[in-house]
Queue: 2 jobs
Job 1
Amino acid sequence: MTISESDPIVPRLRGRESELASLRKLLADPQGGDAVLVVRGGAGIGKSSLLRAAAEEAADLGIETVSLTAVQAEFRLPFAAAHTLLDLLGGTVPPRPDGGREQYHFQLALALLAAAAARSSRRLLLLLVDDAQWLDAPSWEALAFVGRRLSADPVVLVMAMRDGPETESRLAGLPVAELWVEPLPDEAATALLDERAPGLAPPLHARVLAEAAGNPLALTELAAVAARIGEKGMLPATLPLTARMERTFGAAVAELPAATRALLLVAALNEADRLDEILAAGGALSAPGPAVEDLEPAVAARLVDVDDAFQLRFRHPLIRSAIRQQAGPSRRQRAHAALARAISDPDRAVRHRAAATVGTDERVSADLEDLAGRLHRRGASGEAARTWEQAARLTGDRGRRASLLLRALEATLELADRQGVERLLRTIAADDLPAEDRVVLQWLSDIEVGVWSGAARLPGHLAAAERLRRSGRDERALEVLDRVAVRTYFSDLDDDLRNEIVALLERLDLPPLTPRLVTTLGLSAPVQRGAVVVERLNALLEGPGLTGTELAGLAAVATGVGALGAAARLAAEGAARNRREGNLVSLTWALAHQTWCAVQRGDAFLGRTAAAEAEALAIETRQLNFVVPVMLNRAHAEALRGDREAVRAITAQCERALLANGAHPLLCLVRIARGVAALADGRHAEAHDELDAVFTPSAAGYHPYARFSVLAHLAEAGAHCGRRDRVAARVRQLEPIGATGASPLLRANLHCAKALLVPDAEAEGALRAALDADLTEWPFERARLQLALGIRLRRGRPSAARAVLRAAAETFGALGARPWADRAHTELRASGETRRRSADEIDRLTPQELQVARLVAEGLTNREIASRLFLSPRTISTHLYRIYPKLGVGSRTELATLIAREYVM
């Protein structure tokens, strides 16, 4: 398509050659750049015209186009735009599950992704969303979810957004290409003005050009005013353009009959566009009652349109705001009251009752509170927060007001709205809250300011939970302690406080196998109640009915108490169930705990792939508290692989973040990743020093439970750098805990470490005895013992060494622990055996490519893999296109054979 004077879109797109060229380039080569483009600029700058031009270009190129215009009236209706878009794409709205708002939110996003992928299976699909700043929040999140996954699909998403705080906030979380629409050049602006208002006197012509400042809407409307009423209709150029436009529209409204103005005010305040509601409410503002004919002057003035379905729409949002500003407070109050009586929907009616209320009204406040709860359950956290705030404004009860604002704060935190959270924290009077809610407020404050309070505030949580228990609210008491269970785990509590927490948990009148109770008990007292928790975990694993969220929580506590076999199963089942249910929030938890479990078991492959997905989902679902721990577990996985540079970069970034917010206990994960990286690299003294800090109470990075998982690493380092005695002292410190049966992880590490520390003269017998134990759940430790035994045997009996070295090499290779696998292969060659190395090419795969390859090896189709990873089938095909040449295979069968041969599935 070329621009020519005969082209029908030229008159309304004068001076937009560069913007049109960008759109044409995107449509001509959608895979050559970004799949999402935001067209942005000020009100009236021509964004909608550019989207219409894109649609015309797409039609000429045979590209299918689906267009949606967001409506300001639906800004408060959760999922309204997403449902409309899904219907336009021919998809099916998923049923609302029992799992809550997050689950439905992501199921709807997945339905949109699937519908877009299906619609684009035959040819390129162009999705156009105009006025995207008016998308309701859940629909925006769903569309952003889709946009982040379009890179491999023949789908282009173009959104037009008006500049403002809402747009800035939304685009901050969605890194996309932006096409800024600037004011028209002087030549184009002059041509447009001459077309719309020919014959203007030169002084007036010049003033319109100056005040419009290249804005096409301003040129059009100011030209009309100038042509109609001349110089006196013009406004000072010192006013912002939007203000001048609102005043211009206001002047046009002021010329209309009284009945017309009354109807326009009602329409401007109404969330819906139904003419029957507008007429019914308008009767309260003018007499006699208005009729449809009374809108005709507004239609003639190009202020509104009324379609055949009797729906009224303003031609521009500035017209609506101009009408609202022009009406005084008393007229707005009367219009809201009239709308409250005219609207049959109770949810909408109560909003107008609230807007018409001066002072307090406990009944309206209670109705708003109920509405906020429904909105929150439906996924509209932002609108729920605003409604709770409104309910708080309308109550005269100080305690209830504070509690309502606390609910608003919790909902605002879900949106990662920092400014909103800071404002609410300043607004809530903590002294007006009941004691248990003051604890919740303090906990939320800690999250917001990002400061790690450690054990300092745990006594307050304990006291609040005890008060709740005494009042018969045992489940709420458990919720208070569950909120801080992970913080309890990562705090070095004194015995008295920990014992008090345990005693309270055991006094709660709840079934012992309540999943949340098991989780909280295990994270609060991993040693004191570790054996009990392991027993309860086994009982829960045998029973049915655990939800995806419960499975993820139990995976956390299973890892925390060192029951890594149970943890692996719980995390895998939790991830699978949450994938099926589309619950990305709980899936993030399950993957985070799967990562933690995997690296503690030495599984670099699973740790790396699960961490990459968990990190991406944590950011996407705004669970930012998971990001740093998951990154550090990814660093641990990279250390097991021997990627020193990756470990250095990740730990440096995370260390800065942890030091900044005072989360010093989490520095243990930094020490562990660096220590394992040094061990993998053969820097044994450095490895010893890093890992030994985890055992030293005075050192940054000390952690009473993390040391259980690195004792064998410490022993390997110590045995190679002459520090056996120091490591032996660490072993003796932990043996009494191991004897209690509290931590299977600690028992395995003690078993391995003691064998590695035996003097050389006695080492063979000790290592053989250690290998006789059942180490099925601890493949890395078994391979470590085999390698140590093989090294000793190879020195005097090479042929006897080969079997154990071969077994060690295979296990390390299967786990992705390449430095250890390399050592085993080196020893094998020294023993006289020449054996094919594991495929180095597999190590070149990205985490997501490795994940796809392993799922192919499990026999899943592209569509099944796409569903599991929340991607499109075409994206999976693109991954396979890259995987095959990296691995030197040409088919799914060859890929599956290679993966099955090289890795533990």
Job 2
Amino acid sequence: MTLRETGETGAYPELEIEHRETWAVGIPAILKSMGPAIRQMGPLRTAQLMTAMNQKGGFDCMSCAWPDPSHRSPAEFCENGAKAVTWEATPVTVPASFFAENSIDDMLGISEYELGLLGRLTEPLHRAKGSDHYVPVSWNTAFSIIADKLTSLSSPNEATFYTSGRTANETAFVYQLFVRAFGTNNLPDCSNMCHESTSLALNEVIGVGKSTIAYEDFGKSDLIIVMGQNPGTNHPRMLTALEEAKRNGATIIGVNPLPEAGLIRYKNPQKVRGIIGRGTALADQYLQIRSGGDMALLQATSRRVLDAEAAAPGTVLDHDFIATHCEGLPAFASHIASLDEDAVAEATGLTSAELDEFAARYLAADRVIITWAMGLTQQKKSVDTLKELINLLLLRGNIGKPGAGASPIRGHSNVQGDRTMGIWEQMSDEFMDALAAEFAFEPPREHGADSVATVEGLQDGRIKVFFALGGNFVSAISDTAVAEAAMRGAEMTVQVSTKLNRSHAVIGDEALILPTLGRTEIDLQAAGPQFLSVEDSVCAVHATHGRVSPVAPGMLSEVAIISRLARAALGERHGIDWAGFEADYDLIRDHISRVVPGFESFNADVRRKGGFILPNGPRDDRRFDTATGKAMITVNTLEHLDRPAGRLILQSMRSHDQFNTTIYSLNDRYRGIKNGRDVIFVNPDDIAELGLADGQRVTIVSEWAGEPDRELRNYRVVSYPTARGCAAAYYPEANVLVSLASAAIGSKTPVSKAIIIRLEPASSGRTPHR
């Protein structure tokens, strides 16, 4: 039975615009998460899974990388975590008849949302060259087809191997080992599209591309600045940490173009005040910054810090910290002294009073955390923006002490762990040397293709095989039409997946789908039940154990899929024990312990209740493993994002009922959207200035110098109190508007938060949901 037959889907009702919320979570979150879970999984399966999620000895939620507190509540999950579990653990499966009845073209006509509702995949599928249908095949046949193709390539670099960030540590290690044993570093991953700017900037200036805080630091902080992120939707459990910090006396500042309910007020559903009371007001100051203005805000604040030091020498900067641990202050101070305040006002859209208040709050706090997400990383100068963020922290010693530090918040549940395990096209020589010593082969040293380069390689024929371990690449990457055309030029595409998505319909000449176990399912191998591990946003590593039986017999784990493919494609080359890896994941962890720093006692440490914390130089002892051995205060040039007359700056974002490209429903409760996603949020003053009307249908046109315009048609204008001159639309639909060439300097992250658009009255018709 499919969800179509249960009445969960069908014709779309008309789009409705309701009031936007000014608080988050509370009783509605319980109803919206538990209702669908019980309806789709039943009360027993729901209870079995929800009581094990994020618990010691349970399984790790797949919906984000938010860390777990030491003392966990009985319900240590959020609304979107419950939806993610329901989405994965549904007993509904895609019947074989679906693929017999629906061609590839038919699948293209089914929305992303409805594809997911069809249920779990349960058997390998093959679309032969020249065919228009997938047909079931055996596992051995599937591996043979893929291996034959890989070994027929004239160079290993003609294949690329993508990774989704939900892939566990052990799987990621085996995957990168197979890819490098095959002979390439073409290992693009989802981090290329989200926090690559973070990794690049932080590695350069503080020596580690990760958070410099522990979970407990939130409760010890005087000031938490939340920039370019919406925790109420993207990682709702963060709201509990913010509430704890607030009740301990912390000040909270939100910096975001849109007002987000989760940063305004939080109703904790596990507290009486969250059920019958008003909850907890969070943001003491909310700066609705103009898109792309974050660097200007940070520089203006640093300027005020230095001015305060000049007015009261020796009382503002942390001189001991700077002298001992930092370099670059004189050049930075000279540069920032010439900052143009008019340029700051234009870039940020903020008043002098707002800027002064922000700086005063920073100066009044002894322990400051700045936390951020894609609002900062998906800008043209995102790398320099994040260096400015570190500059501001360094000036007052806000790294390496309790309650203070830099805190990037990851979206995928193990994207940080995947990078630690070697999923990167540019791994260091130290990692490669350790890999070579452990497995007695020389891995390739030439850097491989990232996500953008993968599309470019598919475009020009240099890349012929695309293999994806999870994810939905064609929907996630920028420039949708270009990416889809490039993917259709591949000779073979392979997707390892739990459910259908658009990437299964946008394929090469030959295509395979390999179904896999989900994180909620028991993984039984020759040595007995297996567990995996993940690394969260604050460098904590812990085990994750499946709790329910697989949705169908014959399912393989990701480790088993990669191990069997490696045996088929590599045979006895290099003498790697792929069969042993599949049988017993402890063998994988033994190898990891000798290759990856911090995992020296992996098998013992990961079995400790709660796992273990990886070493972190800046956090642990103010050690900065940079080129100079010190934290680097850097000089970065402010560049204003020009908004031509009659244009807006568009950012893409998730709806509330969404995880990355997975759409749970067509609603966005906090923003007042029901039954639709074809909307663009625009400030009412901008609507009037552009001669448009609230509710009017428009074509969104993005403008690129030297390139054709890109269009998104028949979108409804929604009057919304976003920052003046700014607009917002949902991801992944808005990806079609982002040029592949529009990438952050240095990191090549797609610039999805600074798209210059114009709005044109639409012709009749309605855009189908994707």
